[in-house]
């Protein structure tokens, strides 16, 4: 038995290069709307998906993140300004839509229908990007007071909104276009006028306190590669122009 183990060790010594070590496994903090696509781009990292504001707060408190990907430039730019994140870049875009349960009991066919009395609306909390974008749309459309008076729940991330509407616990909710795709058999999607759409840009950067900066930078390069962009597009995200 002992001789067999020695022989196996010798064989491994021939196969593995001297000084080889396990590949570095980084931790990626990413907006919940990226849950379906990031693991397809790279399966090795540890992922923590949540509202961008929550993740940014955790990074400020010293959470061991190597990469931060936000659904809004606000969170990344503030971390960059405060010296906690290396220069972030835009890697994807998105659009806001309204979803209703497939049965559509409140007969919501337009964003303006959300003004009607009794329509139960679910939105994101004001500090999370999807919530901020929602309020921006309502302000642009001039229907903030009427719609917000119908709000029955404010979720900490977009996944919570999708779940509530898919389960019929609300009549309509504001979500990203990409988040409606996985539940398209359970919800009805309602477009928001193009002129009222806010610019929704996703940014990504290396956390300055990371002990694995090279691996973190390699992950970002993978996200912005031809393959990464193709997978983002397949998931329904828009793509910015490639940076040189």
Describe this structure in words.
The chain has 244 residues and is of the alpha/beta class. It folds into two domains: 24-93 and 200-234, D-Maltodextrin-Binding Protein, domain 2; 96-196, Periplasmic binding protein-like II (D-Maltodextrin-Binding Protein, domain 2), CATH 3.40.190.10. The chain contains ten helices and ten strands. The strands form two sheets. The chain has a five-stranded mixed sheet, with helices on both faces. Strands 7-6-8-5-9 form a five-stranded mixed sheet. The longest helix has 14 residues, at 2-15. The radius of gyration is 22 Å and the shape is elongated.
What are the SSEs and their pairings?
Elements: H1 2-15, E1 27-31, H2 38-41, E2 46-50, H3 52-60, E3 67-70, H4 73-81, E4 89-94, E5 96-101, E6 121-124, H5 129-141, H6 144-148, E7 151-155, H7 158-166, E8 172-176, H8 177-180, E9 187-191, E10 200-206, H9 213-223, H10 226-234
Parallel strand pairs: 1-2, 1-3, 6-7, 6-8
Antiparallel strand pairs: 3-10, 4-10, 5-8, 5-9
Q: What are the main properties of this structure?
A:
D-Maltodextrin-Binding Protein, domain 2; single chain; 2 domains; disordered N terminus; 10 helices; 5-stranded mixed beta sheet; alpha/beta; about 240 residues
């Amino acid at each position: 038995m002992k001789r067999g183990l020695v022989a196996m060790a010798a064989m491994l010594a021939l196969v593995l290069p001297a000084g080889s070590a396990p590949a570095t496994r980084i931790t990626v903090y990413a907006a919940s709307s990226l849950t379906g696509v990031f693991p397809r781009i790279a399966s090795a990292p540890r992922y923590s998906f949540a509202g961008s504001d929550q993740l940014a707060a955790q990074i400020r408190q010293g959470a061991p993140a190597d990469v931060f990907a936000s659904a809004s430039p606000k969170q990344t730019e503030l971390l960059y300004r405060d010296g906690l994140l290396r220069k972030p870049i835009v890697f994807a875009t998105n659009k806001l839509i309204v979803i209703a349960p497939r049965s559509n009991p409140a007969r919501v066919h337009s964003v303006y229908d959300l003004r009607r009395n009794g329509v139960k609306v679910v939105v994101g909390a004001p500090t999370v990007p999807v919530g901020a974008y929602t309020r921006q749309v309502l302000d642009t459309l001039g229907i903030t007071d009427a719609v917000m008076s119908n709000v029955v729940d404010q979720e900490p991330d977009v996944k919570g909104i999708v779940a509530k509407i898919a389960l019929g616990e609300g009549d309509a909710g504001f979500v990203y276009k990409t988040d409606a795709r996985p539940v398209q058999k359970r919800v009805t999607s309602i477009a928001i006028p193009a002129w009222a759409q806010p610019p929704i840009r996703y940014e990504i950067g290396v956390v300055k306190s990371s002990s694995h900066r090279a691996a973190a930078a390699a992950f970002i390069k993978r996200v912005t590669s031809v393959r990464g962009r193709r997978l983002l597009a397949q998931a329904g995200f828009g793509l910015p122009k490639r940076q040189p």
